[in-house]
Specification:
Oligomer: heterodimer
Number of domains of chain A: 1
CATH topology of chain A: Transcription Regulator spoIIAA
Strand order of the largest sheet of chain B: 1-2-3-5-4
CATH topology of chain B: Heat Shock Protein 90
Number of helices of chain A: 4
CATH superfamily of chain A: STAS domain
Structural class of chain B: alpha+beta
Strand content of chain A: 15-25%
Strand content of chain B: 25-35%
Helix content of chain B: 25-40%
CATH class of chain B: Alpha Beta
Number of helices of chain B: 4
Strand order of the largest sheet of chain A: 1-2-3-4-5
CATH class of chain A: Alpha Beta
Number of domains of chain B: 1
Shape of chain A: globular
Order of helices and strands of chain A: EEHEHEHEH
Radius of gyration of chain A: 14 Å
């Protein structure tokens, strides 16, 4: 049985903090949960905190990119925060540069990025 | 070669086998005192290859060992399955090519993350991938 990662809501932002080594099933569950929560809450921002994550392989990397794309379609912006230097080095060497994913070094900076974008984006542009 | 205390076999027959494979390799990489970046690269490569063993090989085993050769120390990890094997190696090692639904980075990417990489396979003969990361 795969565990579920809790999705917290703070105002217009959903926050996910990955704290354990997730199996692939749990990663897919998180992707589906987040999409549903974005729609249910009408959130305009998603923060994924990977401070505690020791490795990001192509499966998790693809999940981060997919969540960013799905959220965008659902009128929310995604920021990945807290990536470790060794993880960044490894991802680039693996061949995944995650070009479409916004990042920030810390949770605080990530929230600043989102608040700026949410307040400057005109609502529901076609 | 060191003793068997520093080695371990993990059965990869379900998703949690991939998690256990990562944890076993992490323990050995720390024991071997690989740098943090090298640990991260090795564990990431092991995660990719363990998933390949499960998804494309239909399950198999991972054997991880601390090795000593010619005065250097490292971690060697062997992934073995009895699956369909790989017919076209060059193609399988091309970035972005996949026979399934993945990104096509598992084999090619993990080869870049380790020091030694050997692939032993033939159609119908299963696949064995051996990787080694040495301390610097």
């Amino acid at each position: 049985m795969s565990e579920r990662v809790p999705v917290l809501q703070i105002g217009q932002v959903l926050l996910v903090s990955i704290q354990t080594d997730l199996d692939d099933q749990a990663v897919m569950l998180l992707q589906d949960d987040l999409a549903a929560r974005v729609v249910n809450t009408g959130a305009h921002g998603v923060v994924i905190d990977i401070t505690a994550v020791e490795i990001v392989d192509s499966f998790v990397g693809r999940m981060l990119a997919t969540i960013a794309s799905i959220s965008r379609l659902l009128d929310a912006r995604t920021v990945v925060v807290g990536m470790r230097p060794a993880v960044a080095i490894t991802l680039v060497e693996l061949g995944l540069s995650l070009g479409g994913v916004r990042t920030a070094l810390t949770l605080e900076k990530g929230l600043q990025v989102l608040n700026r974008e949410i307040s400057s984006t005109p609502p529901a542009a076609s | 070669m060191t003793g068997t205390a520093a080695s371990g076999v993990v059965a990869i027959t379900a998703n949690d086998g991939v998690v256990q494979a990562r944890q076993k390799v992490r323990a050995l990489a720390q024991e071997c005192r690989l740098s943090l970046v090298d640990q991260t690269k090795l564990i990431t490569a092991a995660s990719e290859l363990a998933r390949n063993t499960l998804v494309y090989g239909g399950g198999g085993t991972m054997t991880a060992t601390v090795v000593e050769e010619g005065g250097r120390r490292g971690v060697r990890v062997v992934f073995a399955d009895q699956g369909p094997g790989i017919a076209d190696l060059d193609l399988a090692l091309t970035d972005g090519w996949t026979s399934g639904t993945g990104l096509g980075l598992g084999l090619s990417g993990s080869r870049r993350l380790v020091d030694d990489f050997t692939l032993d396979t033939a159609p119908g003969q299963g696949t064995t991938v051996t990787i080694t990361k040495w301390t610097r």
